[in-house]
Structure of NAD(P)/FAD-dependent oxidoreductase:
Amino acid sequence: MKTIAVLGGGYAGLRMVKRLTHEKVDAHIVLINDNEYHYESTQLHEVAVGNKEPSDISFDIRAVLPDSVDFIVDTVTSIDRDKQQVVLKHSQPVAYDYLVNALGFESESFGIKGVDEYSLSFNNIDSALAVRDHIEHTLANYATSHDENDLHIIVCGAGFTGIELLGELVERIPVWNKQYDLPQNGITVDCIEAGKTILPMLPENLSSWAVKFLADHGITMHSGTPITEVRQHSVVSNDKEFPGNIIIWTTGVQGSHVICDSGYAQKRNRVVVENNLSVKDHPHEFLIGDVAAVPNPDSGRFYPTTAQIAVAQADCAAENIVALLAGKPTHDFQFSSVGTVCSLGPGSGVAEIDQMGHWKFKGHKVGLLKRLVNDRSVLELAHVKEMLASR
Ligand SMILES: Cc1cc2nc3c(=O)[nH]c(=O)nc-3n(C[C@H](O)[C@H](O)[C@H](O)COP(=O)(O)OP(=O)(O)OC[C@H]3O[C@@H](n4cnc5c(N)ncnc54)[C@H](O)[C@@H]3O)c2cc1C
């Protein structure tokens, strides 16, 4: 019997396992993930500020896996592609016939000086909790330090993650003010962004509404301000310096470092895959989710890395593995977006939805929409748990 090794229990990896088991493939499926649990990466920013607890955004993977799937909790250190083995930190290597690499994303510093030393980023539950600890510890420290910088939060980057984080901060700051008995308007938040336009992927009226919402809630946005260095107590953009003792880095992500550690031809730990999502000259290897650079034949560019697209890629790659096992031809990845939802805290946001027409929403309706879909762009992914059980 052939072995299919699926690496990563995120959106792409779990969806892959679900599709393969649903198809009742005649193969041994092994899922390898570094935790017993799945966490919804799309909600990490809520944990980072304390508006949600880890248990709100995670669940036990074993509880949703069929008995036929072998689940190994271990860290993948590399892939020996010649021997067709996955190398693990603690256990024996796992041999495979088909490989699905869905190891997801890590934060990207773009080589900017001081980022790793003096700012915090989040790409899993532990790092989100570390951000929260740092914020709370620094705010609490103000009582003895009386250092205004303890109350200055700097968010580096105004992509989706940065903007959604700012929205959660708007919600949380009044709670911290009370909790640490801070002066009214004592906590300040600056967001520093290299791009001139905020949320350029949304129509102008929605992105400017989001920027105004944040400004009305006391967030100062500095667009067109490229960060050149992060220091222990400040962020520098050329000759400007923004002081603050809480520096959160959200400027972008790269794929898992396992990609470069395994000798793939890669850029920012992403591999350009074939149209059927396999790796060139390795038809039994598939890369999906944030480790894959997938060409969009319509635009000539790569698809963005989102959970919505990761799930669609898992469906396509699963169908292709089923086809290969049956000696049939594979098909190319095609994707049509259901739209984009950017939350601004639990009760507001902006959204553009392409389902049964073209819809634009802003304000509290998006809070409701977000609660319904629990994600900015993944209508079909409303809850991974139900997603695994359904279809
Ligand atoms: C704050 C935030 C909000 C976002 N909001 C949205 C949104 O609303 N909508 C949207 O579509 N996208 C959103 N995204 C993007 C989305 O989260 C990613 O595109 C998506 O998580 C990619 O899915 P994935 O399965 O490839 O990887 P991941 O979700 O990162 O899953 C990777 C899995 O692999 C495991 N893993 C990692 N390394 C190893 C290792 N070495 N060994 C073993 N296991 C390992 C991890 O624990 C994890 O379980 C958001 C991202 C962030 C950071």
